[in-house]
Amino acid sequence: MKEVQHPPHAASLLESMRSIGYTLDSAVADLIDNSISAHAKEIYIEFRPNDTPYIAVIDDGKGMSHEALQNAMRHGSKNPLLERSGEDMGRYGLGLKTASISQCRRMTVISKQDANISAYCWDLDVVIEKGAWVMLQLEASEYQALPHFNQLSLQKTGTIVLWQNLDKLLIGETDPESALGMKMLTAREHLSLVFHRFLVKEGSKPKISIALNGSLIVPFDPFLTHHKATQPLDEEIFSVEGKKVVVKPFILPHISKLSNNDTQLVGGTEGVRSQQGFYIYRNRRLIIWGTWFRLARKDELSKLARVRVDIPNALDHLWTLDIKKSAAHPPEIVRLNLKRTVDRIRAVSGRTITFKGRKVSDSEVATGWNEVIDRSGVRFDINRKHPLISEFSKSLDKEGRMQLNLILGVIESSFPADALYNRMASDIRSDFANDSSVESINGMIADLLSNMPLDSPARKQLLMSLHLIEPFNLYPALTKKIIEEYES
């Protein structure tokens, strides 16, 4: 048997690799991974749509020597099977190159270390012309003329990744400036989520700053951990092949307790319900989110649940992590542990939805509706013992009470359960028991009390218990005002 050297055709392979599936967001995130692995504290992303458009990422990391940069520019620069340091963000040795050429035809890397500067460039048009894996080494006069070199020259160490000839990024766009502007907005949102744990100090880990066109990216915490109504549940830790996997569930506040801005943050245009699920972090970097991995369905009872899962890079082979670090699937041993977490948090999330707005325990509140569960399922009956209904019924004769009971029965039988479920499952805020409806009930109270003597025990009992009657228990200030008005 004879061995035959059969290397891939350079131009064809590189052009094919451009369609590996990177978006602008994931491509820029891959470059930031490299900066973080280089221990950068400040990272600058520059979008320039005018004249000759380009994108540059500049960091103050440890930089690379001539030999290290030359190797980093090699496709498959590191064996993915080799063990990496615990904080290394890479895996396949392809991210820098594949992410870059997915967006541009010319990518240049300039790196400074120990006052020595090196620069190399992959230009697809040169590779096509030469028909070989030809990489360009830039002379000092060439890299000194590139954008943002002056910034790098003032730093002790650091690296610039420059994308030029943005053909893929701007394909089909007649207005490059406007197109890059819109893409810049979506990239900002993506990076604020994916790297939110790096943008704040976390334990002994220092804070990293990322700026886009001079404006700092603000971290977006998908768990709203600083909201007073967020419920953090107990952390769980289990071992896989001797490595720790840490699971931390959170139950978001009910939507009625969120400001419009908070609601937009936790759900955006896709809605709170669609963003529920696991949030998988590899070395604190978010790689996949908003999925239950088929361990549960996305439904109303779990829509407030979000689970942070921290995995080390040593388990990449089990999670089938892809090159873009944007997809992963948990192995069976992890799925078994996550299933227990799902069962636990769905119960808590369901209670948050069902019992939102309670000011006192159910045993003390005179509710407007009673939940009834029998063999046929669940239904809701109007509470005939509700003080307002009870007192009104007493004021009627026998025929009137029969008519009242008939009307209440019609309301119960036409309860719009399906429509209510669909609306509550969406991001539309509920508007039950608002101020206007309470004010309308004030008229009923006035009519009831007008027929009661001032010293009537029933009148006194009604006023004394008004703060325990729905919907007044949800409006303590208004209820107190009503009581004081009628007591006087």
Automatic annotation (TrEMBL):
Gene Ontology MF terms: ATP binding
Keyword entries, A-Z: ATP-binding, Nucleotide-binding
InterPro entries listed in its UniProt record: HATPase_C_sf (IPR036890)
Record Pfam families: HATPase_c_3
UniProt protein name: ATP-binding protein
High-level lineage: Bacteria, Pseudomonadati, Pseudomonadota, Gammaproteobacteria, Pseudomonadales
